Each structure stands twice: as structure tokens, then as C-alpha cells.
Amino acid sequence: MKPIKVIVAGPRGKMGSAALRMIQQSDNLQLVGCIDRKFDGQIVKDLDGLPDFEAKIYEDPEVCLNEVEADVLIDLTTPEFGYKHTKLALENGVRPVVGTTGFTKEQLNELTEMAENKRIGAVIAPNFAIGAVLMMQFSKWAAKHFPDVEIIERHHDQKLDAPSGTAVKTAELIQEEREAKHQGHPDEKETMKGARGADSEGLKIHSVRLPGLVAHQEVMFGGSGETLTIKHDSINRDSFMTGVKLSVERVMEMDILAYGLENLLD
Ligand SMILES: NC(=O)C1=CN([C@@H]2O[C@H](COP(=O)(O)OP(=O)(O)OC[C@H]3O[C@@H](n4cnc5c(N)ncnc54)[C@H](O)[C@@H]3O)[C@@H](O)[C@H]2O)C=CC1
Ligand SMILES: O=C(O)C1=N[C@H](C(=O)O)C[C@H](O)C1
Description:
Elements: E1 4-9, H1 14-24, E2 29-35, E3 56-58, H2 61-67, E4 72-75, H3 79-91, E5 95-98, H4 105-118, E6 122-124, H5 130-145, E7 149-155, H6 165-175, E8 198-200, E9 203-209, E10 215-223, E11 226-234, H7 241-251, E12 257-259
Parallel strand pairs: 1-2, 1-4, 2-3, 4-5, 5-6, 6-12, 7-9
Antiparallel strand pairs: 7-10, 8-9, 10-11
Helix pairs in contact: 3-4, 5-6
The chain binds 1,4-dihydronicotinamide adenine dinucleotide and ligand LZUJQKHR.
EC number: 1.17.1.8
Keywords: Amino-acid biosynthesis, Cytoplasm, Diaminopimelate biosynthesis, Lysine biosynthesis, NAD, NADP, Oxidoreductase
Enzyme class: oxidoreductase
């Protein structure tokens, strides 16, 4: 079997460097190029702290996608550039596997339509950790019985987007099971702006940002005389790599965009 040829955008980041290590440990994946903000023309193995790959680094994603023959682009960058890279990949017939969060609904719809028109597989997964996918699915199930629910997500303080992509996706899944509803007292007033968190159809999302954290979420349901809390913790970034690898393998057989890793799991 020929290896799957992969470009990684954001190779020096926390997730990008974990993805390079995952590729290094995989017999069926081959790194063929990287897209970075810096180090144009350099070779991955010559950069401090990166694994021993011969692949070239490109600052211009268009040049990279023109020059390099690739099957898949893994994007782990920022909301602004992740969106641009995903679009470019689809335009160039390269399947995107995107972990970058913070895309708008309009951007997700546009990319979904592009993939469908071009019949190219794509994966955009707000969370690649299997436990996080289960946490979201369990929350969707619980919302059938407990429509009152709030989300508390906790992340490291270098995170650019709030709420997290996982929290947004969890809220969307819960809203498939419950009607929009105002939670809390009908006359409640915030005496300090933001005290009740962000509002997604009445569901409140609270975002904590602190050094020392990785990625954590609690989905808390309240009913008559009881509460139920569904909690997931990513202790380190290896937790996401099973899902990244699975997505790279599965996307090769797909011809539409899947939003969420749950669409790839049995
Ligand atoms: N889906 C998932 O399971 C997960 C998703 N994420 C998301 O992945 C993204 C990256 O997260 P981290 O690695 O923690 O961030 P990071 O800040 O450590 O890494 C981002 C990297 O992107 C690079 N970058 C920025 N602009 C670029 C450009 N124009 N071209 C190429 N590279 C560029 C930066 O130099 C940096 O190395 C974030 O959106 C985060 O929310 C993070 C963890 C898990
Ligand atoms: O930025 C992060 O770290 C993470 N981002 C994703 C998100 O926004 O949900 C996934 C995970 O929570 C880690």
C-alpha cells in the first residue's frame, strides 16, 4: 500500500508538532510538506525540536499546494489562516483534515458546499479526542431528559477563540434534542456584564482560560432534585492524535465534508 501523502500547516505549534510526531510513528503516512509563517525553503529536520523529516517548509500555501503532490492537508493553525488553507486545499483537490477551531457558521457552510460540489472528502473536527466525542454524544442523549444545561469549558490561556469549538459543537448537538429556552430566573439581571456566560439559544457557555490547563469541558444538567455532570479532560495533546490519524485515513474514501469526528466513528 502506498503511504498517504500529508502536508501539515502549523508544524511548530502545540498541535502541529504532535501531528508530526504521530506521522513519524505511522507506517502508512508520509510528510511531504509543511506550511508555516516562517522558515520558507528550510527543511523540517533542520528546525529545532522538530522530528527528522526531509519535507520542505513553505510560507506561501499556494506555492506549497502547486509544488507538492499531496493527498491530505492537516490544518492546525488559527481561525483566519485555517479557513484560507482549507479553501485552498479544496480548490487544489487536496483533502483537508482540519482541527483548527473558530470558523463561523457561514464559513463551515461554504466549505461544506465546496467539498460537495467538487466531490472531495474533508473533515473539520472541533475535537479529535475520542473521549470528547463521547462526552458530546452522551450530552446530546442527556439533553432529551434534562433540557436545562450549561457548559463550562476550561483551556490554556494561549487559546485564541472563545467559546471553544468543542463547546459550540456540544451546544449544537444539544439543540438538536431540545427547544431553545431561557434558563435561570425570567427576571435575572447581570450586575456584572458576562456573569451568566455566552448565550446559545438560552444555553449558557462559560469559558475559563488559565495557564496550566490543556483542554477540559463539563456539561452540567439540572433536573428536579438532581444534577448530572458529564466531564472530559485532555491531559495532553496525544489525546487528539488517534482522531487526527483516523481522519487522515478515512478522508481518503470520502467525497463530502464531515463536521465532527462522530461522523467517522462506528
Ligand atoms: N480539533 C482538535 O481536537 C483540537 C484543535 N485545536 C485547535 O488547533 C489550532 C491550533 O492549536 P495549537 O496548536 O494549540 O496552537 P499554537 O498556537 O500552538 O499553534 C498554531 C501554529 O499555527 C502557526 N500559524 C499561524 N499562522 C500561520 C500561517 N499563516 N501559516 C502557517 N502556520 C501558521 C503558528 O506559527 C503556530 O505554530 C487552534 O485553532 C486550536 O483551537 C487544538 C487542540 C485540539
Ligand atoms: O485550543 C485548544 O487547545 C483546543 N481547541 C479545540 C476547541 O476549541 O474545542 C479542541 C480542544 O478543546 C483543545
